[in-house]
Prior knowledge:
The complex is a heterodimer of chains A (953) and B (73). With 953 residues, chain A is α/β, with parallel strands linked by helices.
Amino acid sequence: MLSITDRDRGTPAAHSDNRVTIEVDGNAVEVPEGTSVMRAASEAGIDIPKLCATESLNAFGSCRLCLVEIEGKRGYPASCHTPATDGMKVRTQSERLHKLRRNVMELYISDHPLDCLTCPANGNCELEDMAGVVGLREVRYGYEGKNHLDSQKDDSNPYFSFDPSKCIVCSRCVRACDEVQGTLALTVQGRGFDSVISASQNQPFMDSECVSCGACVQACPTATLMEKSVIELGQPQRTVTTTCAYCGVGCSFKAEVKGDQVVRMVPNLDGRANEGHSCVKGRFAYGYTTHPDRITTPMIRESIHAPWREVSWDAAIEYAAREFRRIQDTYGQDAVGGVTSSRCTNEETFIVQKLVRAAFGNNNVDTCARVCHSPTGYGLKNTLGESAGTQAFESVEKADVIVVIGANPTEGHPVFASRMKRRLREGARLIIVDPRQIELVRTPHIEADHHLQLRPGSNVALINALAHVVVTEGLVDQDYVDQRCERESFEEWKEFISRPENSPEATASITGVSADEVRAAARLYATANNAAIYYGLGVTEHSQGSTMVIGIANLAMATGNLGREGVGVNPLRGQNNVQGSCDMGSFPHELAGYRHVSGAATRELFQTAWGVPIQPEPGFRIPNMFEAALDGEFKGMFIQGEDFAQSDPNTKHVTAALEAMECIVIQDLFLNETAKYAHVFFPGSSFLEKDGTFTNAERRISRVRKIREPLSGKSEWEAVQELAQAMGYDMHYDHPSEIMAEIARLTPTFTGVTYEKLDELGSIQWPCNERAPEGTPTMHVGEFVRGKGHFMLTGYVPTEERSTSRFPLLMTTGRVLTQYNVGAQTRRTGNTAWHAEDLLEIHPHDASERGIGDGDHVGVTSRVGDTVLRAQVTERVQPGVVYTTFHFPHTGANVITTEHSDWATNCPEYKVTAVQVTKVNEPSEWQRRHREFSEQQRKLLEERRAAARRASG
Amino acid sequence: MKIERLVAMANDIGKYFASRSDNEAVIEGIADHMTKFWDPRMRRQIIAHVSETGGEGLNAHVADAVRRLALPP
C-alpha cells in the first residue's frame, strides 16, 4: 500500500510539451498530452474508482472498475487506458456506471474473506474503500461457492507476509516486480478462476528470485502482501519525510510512525532519487535503530584492557577534552586528529572537521571516502574541475549506451539499478567492465552487448585501449574537443594514447580481454548519440584508482559525452553521504567546497568566520595517522561513525596503530571493532533520531528529519560542539539548520541552500547559488567547471600486488544486496536471513584443483595475513580470481588485504590481493585471537555499570 | 613514519608522472603533488632522506622532485 498521505493518481504522469484540455463531470482540466483520463480526472480533484491501477505502474485495464462515459464514444471505456484528448467530455458517475462498478465489486467480494475488522489492512485497504465507494451492500452469489479462502499463507520472508486468500489477482504485484524493480520474480500462474500469484516457480518467497525490495507490497491494494510490522503494530498515524541512511542512491522515504515508533518505511513518490522505489535495506532493514546492542550512555576507561565505566555526558566530554589537551601539551599540537563519516550528515561532518581545524588547531582530519572514492575527487577535479558526478540519476533514461565499470548496481545501488534496467529494457545498449559475472551481464530481458571480463588490476590498460580505438579510428568528437577542451593537453594525450603499447592488441595480454571485443565496445560507446559511464569501487580501489578515473574522464571528453542529459561520468557512491562528507572539507588538504588549505583567500574566509588561524599546510591522511601512531608521533583521535578495524586494509597493522594511541574517542551506535580499542565512547544517534542533510551520488542534498529524540539524550553535533567548548573553542549552534547556514556562507556551491528551500523543493542538487538558485541537475553544460577540459596522461603501471607461485590467485572484494559495508547496521536486522556470513567465491576449476567443494572451510592466505571462511564454488568468478565480502568482523577479509594504495590519494587497493586458498578444518590464528579479544571486550563492556558504581563509591 | 613507506609512496607518484615526455613536467608534477598532499612532517622526512642518502630507493625524477620541495617556515 502507498503511504497513508499519498494520493494515488492511478497512472504515471505523462511528459509532453503539448497540452490538452478535457472536461470531467463539467470541470475543465488541462494536462500534458498522453495523460490518461483517470489521471486527468484526479488532477481535477475527481477520483475514479479503481483497483488494478496505481500511479507507479502502467495502465493494465483488468479490474473494470474505472469505467467512464465519454461523449461521442460507445460503451464504457476504462479511464486508466484511455488517453485524454483535447475537447473530450467525460462523465465519471451515472446510474449505469454505478451498477457496473457495484457488480464488479460484488464478484471480487464473493471470493474474499470478510474479516475486515481483524485484517491488518483495516484502515488502509483499497478493496474496502472501493466497496464503500460503489455502495456494495450485499453479495447475491453468497460465499459458499468455489473460492480461495483456504489458500495457505507464506510467511517465509522476514519482512512481509503473502496471504493469497486475500488476493484479487489485480497483477499490481507482478507488474511492480516487472516494471519498477525489474526482477520479474512474480507471475500469475494458471488461468481463469485458478489464477494465483506465484513467486518464481510457485515457491515460497524466500526460495524464489524475489529480492525483497517491497515494490509488490507497496503495490498491493489489499492485505495480501503486507508488511509484518503493520500486522504487528497496526496502522501508522503520521508520516515524516526523511532520507535513507544506506547507500549513495539516497532514497527519500516517508517514515510512517505511531508515537515515536516506526511502523513502516514507504518510499516517497516525490523523491527525485528513487521516485517511489526502494530496496530491501531502505524499506525494511531499520531494526538496528532499536537493537539491544545499541549503547546509549557515554563511557570512559583509562586503558583498553580496563572495564568501561558509564558516566554522564559532561564527564565523558570533560575527560576527552582533558586527554586531547594532555596529548597536545605532551607531544605537540599535531599529535591528534579526527575522522568524519560518510554515514553521518553534512552538518555533523562539517563540525567534526571544524573541531579539528579550529579546536585541535591542525589539519589532521580525514574521512572514510579515503578508502572508497577519494580517487574520484582527485581525477574529476583535475580533468573536469569538480569532484563530483556529472548527472542526475534520471539522466540514464536518455542514455543510448550505458557503460558500467567496476560497479555492481543490482547489489550495491539497487534502486538506481532498477532505473538503469528499465532503460536497458527499452533498448539501451550495455557494456560491462568487470572481472566478475555480475547480474547485469545477463538478467531477465537484459544482456550486455559486451562483457569485458578483465583481470583484476588491469583497468588502466583497458581504458587506454578503449581510448586508443577512439583516437586511432577517427571516433573523436573533434568539434566538441576543439570547443570545450584544452588544445595542448588534448594533443599530448592524443599522441600518448595513440602509441602502440596502448592498442587493444598490445594490452590484451594484460587485461585478458580480446582486442576484437575491446574494439567493438569502443566503437559502440563512441558512436552512440548519448553514452554514459557509471562506475564504482572497482575503479577507485586500485593502486591506479585515480589514473582510471582520469582515463574515464578523458574518454568521455574525447567522445563529447559530457555536459548534457543522457551522458556523463557517474561515480556510484558507496555510502549515503560520501559526496557530502567530501564536500564538507573532510580531507586534510582542503576546506569545504574542495578549496586547498594553502589558498590565502579561502583561509582568510574561514579564519574570519571561525576566529582562529587555519594551518596552511595539509595534515595527515588516515593511513598517515596510523603510520605516525606506530612511530609514536600521533596519539589521539576523534572518530565519528567509522570502523577502521574492520573496514581498512591490513587489519593487524590498523589495530596495532589503534593500540599505540593514548586516547581514542569514538562516536557510534554500537561498540564496533574500532571501539574495542577506544578510551571514550560517545553514543551516537541513528538517522531516525536526527535532523540534518545527506548528499547522494548525484549531488542531491536531501533532508534527514528527526522521528524521535536521540536515545542517548544528545545529538552528535551537540556532543562535538561541547567537546570543542571543553577544549576552549567557542562553538555554538542551536540547531543543525544553523550549521547549514554556516556551510552556505562559506561554500560557493552551497550558497543558496537552506532548510526552508529544501522543504520547498524537496531536494537540491548542488551547485545551488545565484547562478543556479534551484540547483544543477547536469554539470558542465556549455563549459567545464574548470573552463576548458583538461586531458591527463594515463600510463599503465602494473600493481606490485601480483600473483606468484606462492599466492597464485587474485582476490577481489565487494558487497551483497542485503548487507551493507561493515554490517554494523544490517547484521542487526532480518537481512541476515539472506546473508549470514561472508563466503569466498571460487571458480570450479580452481576449487577442483584444490579439492574444495561448495561449503567447505577454506584458508585464504596473503603475504600479510590469513583467514578462514566457507567456499562458494561458482562460475561468477573467472579462473584465477576469488571474491569475498567484508560484512562480518570475524571473517577478517581485511586481515588479508595489503597496504598497497592509489598513488594520488592512498585509497587502498582492496580489489587486488594475491592469495592462496586451501581446504582447512579450523579457524585461523587471527580469528582465534580476534574471538578471545572480542570476548574480553564484551566482558569489559558488561562491567560498565558495576564499574560506574564502584567509581562513584 | 617509516622512510621505506614514504619512499614507496613517492615512487608511486613518480610512476604516474613518468608518462609525461618532458622531464621538467615530470619533476614538477611530482613536487607539486607532494606539496599539495603531503603533511610537512612527511616532506621534511623525505627531504632529510635525500640529503642524507642522496635519495636511496627513490627513482631519479622523484629524488629531483624532493630536492625542490619547500617546507613551511
